[in-house]
Amino acid sequence: MVLYEFRPNQVFDPKKHMLDVVAKQYLEQATSDVHHL
After folding, report:
1. Alpha carbons 11 and 13: distance in angstroms, whole number
2. Distance between alpha carbon 18 and the CA centroid of its chain, in Å?
3. Quick one: which of 27, 31, 34, 37 is 20 to 30 A from 3 by CA?
4. Per residue in 1-37, pLDDT tens?
5. Which pLDDT belongs to residue 15?
6. Rounded distance, CA 21 to CA 14, Å?
7. How many CB atoms lie within 10 A of CB 15?
């Protein structure tokens, strides 16, 4: 098990941020699709 130190203000990775944005959009799309069933 690797110890991961969380330091939100020191490192900002735009690639990870983009993945978060895409995942959020995907989840919103999925939930709206579920509501249409």
Report:
1. 6
2. 8
3. 27
4. 677 666 666 666 777 778 888 888 998 998 887 776 6
5. 77
6. 10
7. 7
